[in-house]
Design brief:
The chain has about 450 residues and is mainly beta. It has helices at about 175-180, 220-230; strands at about 15-25, 30, 45, 55-60, 70-80, 90-95, 105, 110-120, 125-130, 150-160, 165-170, 185-190, 200-205, 235, 245-250, 255-260, 265-270, 275-280, 285-290, 295, 300-305, 315-320, 340-345, 375-385, 385-390, 395, 410-415, 425, 430-435. The two termini are about 35 Å apart.
Length: about 450
C-alpha cells in the first residue's frame, strides 16, 4: 500500500533543530536520514602519493579510451585481508579484494560507467553516497532491485558535481559496510583553486573483530543498539591499523577524508598542529576555515583539509581520534584518544620554500533565497520503544515527500532523540539556513 509522510508546519522555537533549503531538480528522488589493505587482483593496480606507501588505494583499469568517459568493472567478493603489515589475514567482504574498495577518480562533467559484479553469498547494490544521480542508478531499494549472488548491474551517470564522495551497498548497509564494502569516489574540479597541492585520499572506518581476531558475525544487537548504531572494535585508515606516513617538513599536506563507518563519529586531531578546512560534502567551501583544533566527521561525511607539518627530521606527529559523546546511551566506550596514524617528519624538500598562501576565495556559492511563499515543512525524528519515527510515523518502506520539479523546498529538521543523527539526502544538495535554532 502506498503512503505519504505526514508533513507538519514547524514549531518556531525548537532545540536540536536546523532549517535547510533545496531545489527539486529531478522527479521522483528519494530521501533517507542515515545511511546509516589488501592485495589487488585482476585489472586493479595500487597507487599512493609519495610517503603514503603504507596506505595505498587500488585504481581500477579504465576500459574507455575517451578522456571524458570512465568505465570500470567492480566486483564484490570475499577476500583474505591483513589489517596491518605482516599481520594475520582474515576473511572480509571486499570490492576487488581490497579494503577499502578501489578509488574511482574522474573530473566534473565526465560520464561514469561501473559494471558491478556480485560474487558475494548475499544480494547487494552500490549506492553513490552524496552523488547526484538519476533514480535508477541510486542503488537503494526504492529505485533498484537487489543484485543477486552471481548477478551483474551496470551503473551509468554523468558526474555533475566536483567533490569527495564514496560508494557502498544500500542493501543490508550496516552488515555489508561493516564487513568491508566501501570505497572512495573523487571527482576533481576542472577549475580547482591554485596552491592547494595534490591530495592524499584517506578513508576512515571501523570493523568488529571477535576474541580470536576474526571478523565478528553480524549482530543487530537488539532494539537499542539498532537505534543508536554499532561501532567497530578497531579503527582503520585505508584498511590499516595505525599506519605511518612520511611527510616533508614545511610542505603543505592536503587530505581528502571519508568517514566510511556505519555509525562512528570521527573527531580527528593532529598533535601540535591546527587544521584548515577547505571543503566538505558539497565540494569546496567559499573561504578556508583556519586554525581548527580538530575535525568532526559524522558517519558518511567527507572533509577536505590542509596543514603544514613542522618539527625536526625524524620526529613524529600523532594523528588521534578524540573521544566524542554523541548522546546518552550511545554505547561509545572510548574514554581516551585513540591513535589513528603517525606522521614521520622528513627533511624539507627545499629549505627555502614557503608554501603559497591559500586563496582567500575558493568558490562562489549561489544562495537559495526562500520567500514568504516558499513551503516550509517539519521533519521531526523521534523514537519509540521499538524504533525511530518521522513525524510520529514508523518507516514503512514507501514514505513519500510530495514535491514539484523546480520547486524550492524548506524543511525544518528536528531531532527529538537522545543521539546525534546525521541527515543525508539522495540525489540532492541542500543549504543550511539556520543551524540549531531558528526564527521563521
Amino acid at each position: 500500500m502506498k503512503s505519504s509522510l505526514n508533513l507538519r508546519r514547524p514549531d518556531p522555537c525548537r532545540a536540536g533543530a536546523a532549517r535547510v533549503a533545496l531545489v527539486v531538480l529531478c522527479a521522483g528522488a528519494n530521501a533517507a536520514c542515515q545511511d546509516s589493505g589488501g592485495g589487488a587482483k585482476g585489472s586493479t593496480t595500487l597507487w599512493s602519493p609519495a610517503g603514503y606507501e603504507q596506505i595505498p588505494l587500488g585504481i581500477p583499469r579504465d576500459l574507455d579510451p575517451d578522456p571524458n568517459r570512465i568505465e570500470v568493472v567492480i566486483e564484490s567478493r570475499p577476500a583474505q585481508i591483513a589489517l596491518r603489515a605482516g599481520g594475520p589475514e582474515i576473511t572480509m567482504w571486499t570490492y576487488d579484494g581490497l579494503i577499502p574498495g578501489p578509488l574511482i577518480r574522474a573530473k566534473r562533467g565526465d560520464k561514469l560507467t561501473v559494471r558491478f559484479r556480485n560474487s558475494l553469498p548475499d544480494s547487494s547494490t552500490i549506492h553513490w553516497h552524496g552523488v547526484r544521480v538519476p533514480n535508477p542508478m541510486d542503488g537503494s531499494h526504492v529505485t533498484q532491485a537487489h543484485v543477486s549472488p552471481g548477478g551483474e548491474f551496470v551503473y551509468a551517470f554523468d558526474l555533475v558535481d566536483a567533490g569527495t564522495f564514496w560508494y557502498h551497498p544500500h542493501h543490508q548497509s550496516n552488515k555489508q559496510v561493516g564487513f568491508g564494502l566501501y570505497g572512495p569516489l573523487v571527482v576533481d574540479a576542472r577549475d580547482e583553486p591554485p596552491g592547494l597541492g595534490s591530495p592524499a585520499i584517506i578513508v576512515l572506518s571501523d570493523v568488529t573483530l571477535d576474541a580470536s581476531g576474526k571478523l565478528a558475525p553480524y549482530d543487530e544487537g537488539g532494539i537499542e543498539a539498532g537505534k543508536r548504531g554499532r561501532e567497530g572494535s578497531i579503527v582503520l585508515v585505508n584498511g590499516r591499523t595505525r599506519p605511518t606516513v612520511t611527510v616533508p617538513i614545511n610542505s603543505r599536506q592536503r587530505w581528502l577524508l571519508v568517514n566510511a563507518s556505519r555509525n562512528r563519529f570521527f573527531r580527528i586531531a593532529l598533535q601540535g598542529h591546527a587544521l584548515t578546512r577547505i571543503g566538505g560534502d558539497g565540494g569546496f567551501l567559499e573561504q578556508p576555515l583556519a586554525d581548527l583544533p580538530d575535525l568532526m566527521l559524522g558517519p558518511g561525511e567527507r572533509g577536505d583539509v590542509v596543514f603544514i607539518p613542522t618539527g625536526t627530521p625524524g620526529a613524529r606527529i600523532l594523528v588521534s581520534l578524540l573521544p566524542y559523546d554523541r548522546g546518552n546511551g550511545s554505547g561509545d566506550a572510548m574514554a581516551d584518544a585513540v591513535a589513528l596514524m603517525d606522521l614521520s617528519l622528513a627533511p624539507p624538500s627545499d629549505s627555502n620554500a614557503v608554501p603559497p598562501a591559500l586563496p582567500a576565495q575558493l568558490r562562489s556559492i549561489e544562495r537559495l533565497a526562500p520567500t514568504l511563499d516558499s513551503p516550509v515543512d517539519e521533519l521531526a525524528i523521534g523514537e519509540t520503544p521499538t524504533g525511530f519515527v518521522v513525524n510520529g510515523q514508523a518507516f514503512n518502506g514507501d514514505m513519500r515527500l510530495p514535491a514539484k520539479v523546480g520547486e524550492l523546498r524548506v524543511f525544518d529538521l528536528i531531532n527529538h532523540t537522545i543521539y546525534d543523527h546525521p541527515f543525508h539526502l539522495h540525489g540532492f544538495f541542500f543549504q543550511v539556513l539556520a543551524p540549531n535554532t531558528f526564527t521563521p
